[in-house]
Amino acid sequence: MLALTILGNNSAIPAFDRNPTAQILQTFDTSYLIDCGEGTQMQMAKYKIRRSKITHVFISHLHGDHYFGLIGLLNSLSLLGRTQDLHIHAPAPLQNIINMQLQVVHGELSFKIYFHDLTKEGLIVDDKRVTVHCFYVQHKIECWGFLFREKKHPRKVDAEKARAYEIPASFYEKLQEGEDYTNKKGTIIPNGEVTVAAIPAKSYAYCADTKYDETIIEKIKGVDLLYHETTYLKNLEKIAGERFHSTTTQAAAIAKKSGAKRLLIGHFSSKYETLEEFHAEASEIFENTELAIQGVCYRI
Amino acid sequence: MLALTILGNNSAIPAFDRNPTAQILQTFDTSYLIDCGEGTQMQMAKYKIRRSKITHVFISHLHGDHYFGLIGLLNSLSLLGRTQDLHIHAPAPLQNIINMQLQVVHGELSFKIYFHDLTKEGLIVDDKRVTVHCFYVQHKIECWGFLFREKKHPRKVDAEKARAYEIPASFYEKLQEGEDYTNKKGTIIPNGEVTVAAIPAKSYAYCADTKYDETIIEKIKGVDLLYHETTYLKNLEKIAGERFHSTTTQAAAIAKKSGAKRLLIGHFSSKYETLEEFHAEASEIFENTELAIQGVCYRI
């Protein structure tokens, strides 16, 4: 199971109590922080996000509204005595920016940071339960999207039935993987007799700041939840293109063409006080659209 | 008239909806920003502070809770199209930290920043209505306090009376400065006959993060409002000293010994959820003590 909590849903200038971009993707035992605009650590406190669970941070690009909150978060984690390693995946210059600020105070953090520069599309994290791939998106400066895929869940063994068929516990791992069992007499016990189907592995694609770009479609095909930026309503398509951002209808078109199951839209321009029209415009093209609202947890 | 609005009153780790340090000192026609912890621009929006009025920023030291919000503020000011110069007074390394983050986006700000490195005690700003002096305080790293003094206000000319005495308008400026007028017949019109006393010029001293340090006293003698940090309650005096911070009773002692008229205490440690005890302990020694509360404007 994946669960996504929105910590910031606004574009560059914070407005109407909407913070710059940050999201937390929680899996069973770990959390991934996706972008980290100013005030992210306060938003985490507000929405009771456990900072200690974060193992990886993904920064899509180095416009300030996507990373200015990172140094403050790192500082606080250190003051709180974190010892666990932290992995930061980001465009290369971030490492110098962070290190320069740490050097000024002649202090070391209480934990070790591993910087992983984003350099080419492909697999960047291969965790126990999740893989993460990065892919290019088209923005004014180097910018990356991220695709999170749960690994296939193990089938659930019905221990009572397995015992009845005299299947040894040492074979349970293979049962979880879907294998049939052949007993001493040569009788085949079909896997389905003693296991229950796993819940399907889920996926989440984060398309950070980007203009409308159909090359994304192949990369996020069939994703369970697609986050696509919608800085503007559809009447501002020209401005959106010039600024390397997208509109509601463009985000919805990408969702439709990629066969996404659900669409989440965010990164709203500060010019909009209310968001109803964003929802109306996008869901006209792609029905299963939701607004990214701060503090809301979207289960995938 | 000076008016101080508190935007953040907490120490290093934001907690209990208390933000890291930032204050706005407003004069008649301009505003000074004193320290700029993470989230300052959001606090300004929340408390309806006009960002465009800020002409000078003063950063006491380069612990993150005193400056991590600056880059985000600069970024937003530029997105909002500011053209007016901005002066930043801070320890020297700040300039590189800011510039490095601006370079990454290959962009220039819409306005010009003048960095003024703090290098020695003394006058750093001489505005039309206010002077600002900086002075050393004792913290773990290079750290500065700031003393804001209004210039003497002009006396108020009673134009009706002045006309009755046939004083030419060209002499009004001298009347404002307190001079008597001698008419053509050689009669002296005492200044007090045609002017009203000016409201007294006020002063504000900001003693940023500091351990108890009596050398401050001479520098802030007789100030109208003294802000002194109180990270801890009095029972933690030992810890306070080790960490180059102060307690309630220490701040109150400085206020008393310097002849300050009022004391404002802040920079509360994240370990304290409520602040009543801070007030109780400090006001026992220095009666005219107030807590620095976010969003509250203290008129000086």
Summarize it.
The structure is a homodimer of 300-residue chains. Chain A has 300 residues and is an alpha/beta fold. Chain A folds into two domains: 3-153 and 199-299, Metallo-beta-lactamase, Chain A (4-Layer Sandwich), CATH 3.60.15; 156-196, no CATH class.
Low-confidence regions of chain A = none
Broad shape of chain A: globular
Question: Biggest sheet of chain A: strands side by side, in what order?
Answer: 6-5-4-3-2-1-18
- CATH level 1 name of the largest domain in chain A: Alpha Beta
Distance between the termini of chain A: 6 Å
SSE ordering of chain A? EEEHEHEHEEEEEHHEEHEEHEHHEHEE
Proportion in helices of chain A: 10-25%
State the helix count of chain A: 10
Domain tally of chain A: 2
Main beta sheet strand tally, sense and closure of chain A: 7 strands, mixed
Mean pLDDT of chain A: 95
Q: Supply Rg of chain A.
A: 22 Å
- Quaternary organization: homodimer
CATH architecture of the largest domain in chain A: 4-Layer Sandwich
CATH superfamily of the largest domain in chain A: Ribonuclease Z/Hydroxyacylglutathione hydrolase-like
Query: In percent, how much strand structure appears in the residues of chain A?
Result: 25-35%
Biggest interface in this structure? A-B, 32 and 31 residues
In CATH, the topology of the largest domain in chain A is named Metallo-beta-lactamase, Chain A
Strand tally of chain A, please? 18
| Class computed from helices, strands and strand pairing of chain A | alpha/beta
Provide structural commentary.
Two copies of one chain form a homodimer. Chain A has two domains: 3-153 and 199-299, Ribonuclease Z/Hydroxyacylglutathione hydrolase-like (Metallo-beta-lactamase, Chain A, 4-Layer Sandwich), CATH 3.60.15; 156-196, no CATH class. The first copy, chain A, has ten helices and 18 strands. Chain A has helices at 40-46, 70-79, 94-104, 159-164, 172-176, 191-194, 216-219, 237-242, 248-258, 276-285; strands at residues 3-8, 22-26, 31-36, 54-58, 86-90, 113-117, 122-126, 130-136, 144-150, 156-157, 181-182, 188-189, 195-196, 203-207, 225-229, 262-266, 289-291, 297-299. The first copy, chain A, has a seven-stranded mixed β-sheet. In chain A, strand 8 and strand 9 (144-150) form a beta hairpin. In chain A, helix 9 (248-258) runs parallel beside helix 10 (276-285). Chain A is globular. The A-B interface holds A 12-15, 19-20, 38-39, 41-42, 45, 62-65, 68-69, 71-72, 75-76, 79-80, 93, 96-97, 100-101, 104-106, 141 and B 12-15, 19, 38-39, 41-42, 45, 62-65, 68-69, 71-72, 75-76, 79-80, 93, 96-97, 100-101, 104-106, 141.
